Structure formats: C-alpha cells, structure tokens
Amino acid sequence: MGYENLQVERKDGVAVVTVSRPKKLNALNTKTIDEIDAIFTALASDDEVRGVVVTGAGEKAFVAGADIEELAGLDAESGRALSERGHRVFDRIEWLGKPVVAAINGFALGGGCELALACHVRLASENASLGTPEVKLGLMCGYGGTQRLPRLVGRGAALEILLTGGRVGAEEALRLGLVNRVVPLEQLLPEAEALVREMIANGPLALRATLEAVHGGLDRPLAEAQEGEAQLFGELCASSDAGEGTSAFLEKRAPRFRGR
Ligand code: HXC
Asked: Model pTM greater than 0.90?
C-alpha cells in the first residue's frame, strides 16, 4: 500500500516508518493518523517484520504535534473523538508485540512527543527538543501524554513539562529518562536500527511476552501483575523457542529461533 504522509522501508526484518510532511514539520493531520493506524495494523501481522523504527523526515523535526489547523475547528464532541482515535492508534504501537524504537531527530512536540512516548524506547539526536506545548494553545495533551509522560519520568518532572509547555533539550531529556540515549544526528538512524536488531536477535515470543508483561502489568497491583508474568513465563516454557534457546546455550552454539 502507498502512503501519502509516511515512508516505509522494510529491510531484513526491520521496518523504518518515517512520518513525512516536511513542509509542516511532519505534523499529524487526520490523514497521517489514519496512515499510522494502517501501517501498524499491517506490521502487526507481517511475520517478516520483527522490529520497527519510527522517525520523522528531514533534519528539523520528528513530529511537531497534531496539525493545529485541524484543531482550530473542534468542538466538545469532535475533540473527544479526535483524542480517542489517537489513543487507539498509539495503543496499537505500544501493543504491537514487537520492539518499536523512536528515533527523535528534532522537534517532538505535543502529539509528536506523545507518539515517541507510545514507542518502547526513545533515542534522540543532539538537536532534539521535546515538549508538550498544548497548554500554550489553551489545550492539553490528548494522545496519551498526560498518562504516559508521568509513568515514564515521574509525576513531578512530567507536571513541570506539561504545565509549562516548555521544551526539553536532548541532554535534559536523557537526564530525566525521557530518552534512553543521545547521539549525533547522522548516527541516529543507524543506532536506532542497530538497537532494534540487537533486540530482534532474541526470541520473538520472548519479546512479545516481555512487552505484554511490562505494559499489561505496570497499571496493576504487584501481585496481580506477577500472576500475569508467571502465566506468560509458563507459556514461553512450553514453546519450541525456549527449548531451542536453552539447548543452544548448553551446546555452546547460537540459537535459531522460529517464533514457535
Ligand atoms: C500545523 C505546523 C505545526 C503543527 C509547525 N507547523 N508545527 N502546522 N501544526 N503542529 C508548520 C508551520 O505553521 C509552518 O508552516 C511550518 O510548519 C514550519 O514551521 P515554523 O513555525 O515556520 O518553524 P519554526 O519557526 O522553526 O518553529 C518550529 C516550531 C513551531 C517551534 C516547532 O513550528 C511550533 O511551535 N509548532 C507548533 C508546535 C505545537 O504547538 N505542537 C503541539 C500541537 S497540539 P507555514 O505554512 O507557515 O510555512 C497537539 C495536540 C495533540 O499536538 C493531541 C490531540 C488530541
């Protein structure tokens, strides 16, 4: 399928999804949200793809937010619907069942920051600048930011970002745990891809179960979440990948995982 506002490149098990509306700093209009929905739906069932990198076109912006032109005409009902649609699409990224790494190559503001938060791991270029400036528009985060940001960096740091609407540079984002690494811009995509490749060298069922345990468990009481972990661990033990992984270690050879 062709996309108007996304570039998608599949290479040896990794898909690189680039949000591409360069004249609007890759802002997320309805069409782009629809296309993100479509590509992540497709990637979920594409067995050839085992990990994903999400980035923005150009050297200035990852994604500068939701498209403000579209926000201008919203009322209570359409605003709520826009937010709920975004939640469903970004949840699809978080629940892909395969590692998704954001390569933040510049401004990641508002919905762009929220897109990065829905990814599993975030790498930033030195020129990256993150924030949630919605309050400056008289609005607030609506694509999960009020929930994912405090879960990632803690309530105090999140509230400073959310309530000031100010921007956080790459080094500050690293200090806060908002991003995992900062690298020069030209190394961002190679490093993000290498990180995904390191992950997908592991058993795909093990990765899927780990993602499910973390995302499904963090919002539950510890005992209940650990029950979920035990259930997933048990299921993995019955997989042929677990047999292969443990045998390979004992036989001092590299494992050949098949995702079964
Ligand atoms: C629509 C946008 C845009 C956006 C940039 N542009 N961000 N258009 N929506 N979010 C457009 C500009 O209007 C301009 O178009 C072109 O991209 C280049 O941007 P400039 O502003 O000229 O660039 P610069 O001066 O370098 O400033 C960069 C910037 C600034 C600091 C990133 O563009 C900016 O503040 N953008 C808005 C950031 C923001 O508020 N994001 C949150 C949106 S609300 P023209 O045609 O003039 O060249 C949101 C809500 C999510 O995300 C939740 C929804 C439920």
From this structure: yes
